[in-house]
Amino acid sequence: MASTVGKTITCKAAIAWGPGKDLSYEDVEVLPPRAHEVRIKIEYTGVCHTDAYTLSGKDPEGAFPVILGHEGAGTVESVGEGVTNVKPGDHVVALYTPECKECKFCKSNKTNLCGKIRATQGKGVMPDGTSRFRARGQDILHFMGTSTFSQYTVVADISVVAVQQDAPMDRTCLLGCGITTGYGAARITARVEEGSNVAVFGAGCVGLSVVQGAVAQKAGKIIVVDVNPAKEEWARRFGATDFVNPAQLPEGKSVVDRLIEMTDGGCDYTFDCTGNVSVMRAALEACHKGWGESIIIGVAAAGQEIATRPFQLVTGRVWRGSAFGGVKGRSQLPDLVTDYLEGRLKVDEFITHRKTLPEINDAFEVMKQGDCIRAVLNMQA
Ligand code: NAD
Ligand code: AHE
Ligand code: ZN
Predict the structure, then answer these.
(1) With a 6 A CB cut-off, is 219 part of the ligand 1 pocket?
(2) How far is the C-alpha of 328 from the C-alpha of 146, rounded, in Å?
(3) Are 111 and 24 part of one and the same domain?
(4) How far apart are CA 354 and CA 376, in angstroms?
(5) Residue to substitute in 47, 49, 50, 146 for testing ligand 2 pocket (most ligand atoms within 8 angstroms of CB)
(6) Angle at Cα 171 formed by Cα 170 and Cα 177, nearest 5°?
(7) 159 and 231 in one domain?
(8) In the annotation, is 103 catalytic?
(9) Do 216 and 303 belong together in one domain?
(10) Which residues have any ligand 2 atom within 6 Å of their CB?
(11) Residue 185 falls within a domain, yes or no?
């Protein structure tokens, strides 16, 4: 096959032309990578709720037309000038939380947020302010610095990490968001201690990954809270010790009361994995007085705000947040792939649905149903 290096590639992508519209499967032109950029042939991508959230038009940063997708794995097709961290043929995972290793954030051991390209990433363009995608004669925006719903994508070199060649890409794609986010939130953001009591609100891919992280940290009680009764079996399979359905509590008893009762005064750590601001409040208020920490992971819709009585914080409860599980992608993601390959990290178990790129709108539909943990798209089929 003739080399594509340095040339524009025409391939298929799912383009979001406007909020609330179905994605359109069509040709896209993918320009060659410029300096410090990498063009990736995407093999597999997971569909995350954040993609649906932006498609719905509720993301204040959302702009159209755009190629969504941020849970992708593939092979490096070509690199621009000055790229040293990956080379053509490498198997990679795209990183929506980049790691430049040079900025104030990257040099801090307190955060995984990198500041280098955040402004342009939020605007849907490459760091030089332009797009590498064209369709129907117009520029198409990038999303989260990754745009994995295209057979080829271009990302900044700091937004990609090479991983073990023998790791299956239909699994490593899920380490690009959901699994890493929950697992890291328990292990890196919260640093759950041995024997501590944990409550996880929402047992989707993120919440079940928090459970997995809490098990790795040898937590005591791991209580999953979900309004979907079918999630009890899922929660226990991942290591939850207890399950609470807020919709099935006796009249007058709140989920906060129930958790406080089950943990002799409140949880040491709670996690919101729902994106619902009322749940976020309950998660904070279910924490133990004096030291309980609540970590917000869920993405709330635009305009939503969190509230509680300040007394909750005055009396020692801590409210925190976590993006991508506090994981510094280039430094730490290969270790998670090793954990997966060596049987310490569950990944296969999260895949409930498999689809191809032309079926992407079906994948968005199944994601909204209670029996889907993750749908993985085969991008080249
Ligand atoms: P999901 O929809 O698969 O899971 C959410 C779960 O919450 C479901 O099981 C649902 O039944 C349950 N739920 C809904 N309302 C509830 C309520 N009132 N009380 C208890 N349970 C309730 O979603 P997911 O893929 O696991 O993602 C969870 C959230 O995390 C989303 O908001 C997503 O956008 C966000 N997210 C954030 C990051 C980050 O880096 N911060 C990364 C990935 C995803
Ligand atoms: N763009 C939204 C916020 C969306 C958001 O919170 N994104 C999470 C990742 S969700 C992955 O599924 C995140 O990491 N945010 C940190 C960042 O720098 O984007 C808004 O409200 O503007
Ligand atoms: Zn995501």
Answers:
(1) no
(2) 16
(3) yes
(4) 5
(5) 50
(6) 110
(7) no
(8) yes
(9) yes
(10) 48, 50, 59-61, 97, 113, 118, 177, 299, 323-324
(11) no
Range of the domain at 198: 190-321
Q: Is residue 1 part of a domain?
A: no
What H or E segment, with its residue span, contains residue 212?
Answer: helix 205-216
Q: Does 3 map to a domain?
A: no
Residue type, 76: V
Is 374 marked active-site? yes
Name 20's Cβ contacts closer than 8 Å, sequence gap at least 6: 55, 56, 57
pTM: 0.98
Taking CA atoms only, the protein residue closest to ligand 1 atom 20 is 226
Residue type at position 193: E
Angle at 80 between CA 170 and CA 144, to 5 degrees: 50
Q: What is the CATH number of the domain that holds 23?
A: 3.90.180.10
Residues 128 and 39 in one domain: yes
Cβ partners under 8 Å of residue 265, min gap 6: 288, 289
63 vs 55: CA distance, rounded Å: 9
Region for residue 51 given its phi and psi (left: phi exceeds 0; alpha: psi -120 to 50; beta: otherwise): alpha
As given in the structure block, the two tokens for residue 25 are 């499967």
Q: What is the pLDDT along the chain (381 residues), one digit of tens a residue?
A: 789 999 999 999 999 999 999 999 999 999 999 999 999 999 999 999 999 999 999 999 999 999 999 999 999 999 999 999 999 999 999 999 999 999 999 999 999 999 999 999 999 999 999 999 999 999 999 999 999 999 999 999 999 999 999 999 999 999 999 999 999 999 999 999 999 999 999 999 999 999 999 999 999 999 999 999 999 999 999 999 999 999 999 999 999 999 999 999 999 999 999 999 999 999 999 999 999 999 999 999 999 999 999 999 999 999 999 999 999 999 999 999 999 999 999 999 999 999 999 999 999 999 999 999 999 999 999
Whether residues 138 and 258 share a domain: the answer is no
Nearest to 213 by CA among 240, 173, 232: 240
For residues 58 and 100, state if they share a domain.
Answer: yes
